[in-house]
Design goal:
Distance between the termini: 23 Å
CATH class: Alpha Beta
Radius of gyration: 17 Å
Helix content: 25-40%
Oligomer: single chain
Shape: globular
Order of helices and strands: EEEHEHEHEHHEEEHEHH
Number of helices: 8
Number of strands: 10
Length: 253
């Protein structure tokens, strides 16, 4: 599958396409924190029957690194221009890796054309993600030119102050409120937050979270992949991609 990797840009956002074939379903793919679209390009093969749009979230990859505006709602707004350019008013679904699952929820509130949100091991409580907070701290230390953007992203999204190394408790369950479309969480069975001996980061979702989410929506479901941890779209692609396809194929054309 040929993917445009020349870094097309619209506003703040760099974006990439595999194709845009009339009659095929549309899927927006968003990467995790401190990542970029290029680490999810391999999904093009397994999802070749869909029109795929990857976007680098603001402050990531080839997108613009500004010094503020990294809360979930602002990050979603930044994507609207690219979405309008590529999908116009056509329906599309969202696959959000890690923190981008929250951005996907915000997009679903902004655009009636969103058909579903698929969240791949999205953290819902910043108290469970010490590995991510450590990665943000290290990135701020090492990437001197990006320090203002990393500090703002850490604070605005995760409630984490990279200067003090302290995080204010933050949960994301309320982000499910007012989302009218089906939501699917794909999670792994490895939970490093309560099994600190695991080397891998582990999954960030636990079954008890489902009850908290149901306070806001009845259109939520979850699927667990045995032995998967964080970044399961890469480590367990053979199991994850069919789950994504099954969700998309049950949507109206």
């Amino acid at each position: 599958m040929q993917v445009s990797i020349e870094g097309n840009k619209r506003g703040y956002i760099a974006y990439y396409l595999n194709s845009h074939v009339k009659g095929q379903k549309n899927l927006l793919i968003l990467h995790g924190a401190l990542g970029a679209s290029d680490r999810l390009m391999y999904l093009a093969g397994g999802l070749s029957s869909y029109n795929l749009l990857w976007c680098d979230i603001k402050g990531h990859g080839l997108s613009t690194h500004v010094d503020n505006g990294y809360d979930p709602t602002s990050l979603a707004y930044d994507l609207l221009e690219v979405i309008a350019l590529i999908f116009a008013q056509e329906p599309f679904s969202i696959l959000g890796e890690s923190f981008s699952g929250i951005v996907g929820l915000e997009l679903a509130k902004l655009l009636l054309q969103v058909q579903c949100v698929i969240m791949a091991d999205t953290p819902l409580d910043n108290g469970r993600i010490p590995s991510t907070l450590t990665a943000l701290l290290n990135a701020h230390h090492r990437q001197v030119k990006k320090r203002p953007a990393i500090a703002s992203f850490s604070r605005d999204f995760f409630g984490f102050d990279v200067l003090s190394g302290k995080a204010k408790p933050r949960e994301f369950f309320i982000r499910f409120a007012n989302v009218q479309v089906p939501i699917l969480m794909i999670t792994g069975s490895r939970k490093a937050w309560d099994q600190p001996s695991l080397e891998d980061a582990g999954a960030y979702f636990i079954p008890a979270d489902s009850k908290k989410i149901q306070k806001y929506t009845q259109r939520f479901s979850w699927v667990e992949i045995k032995d998967a941890g964080h970044l399961l779209l890469k480590t367990h692609m053979e199991q994850a991609v069919p789950i994504v396809i099954d969700m998309l194929e049950h949507l109206p054309s």
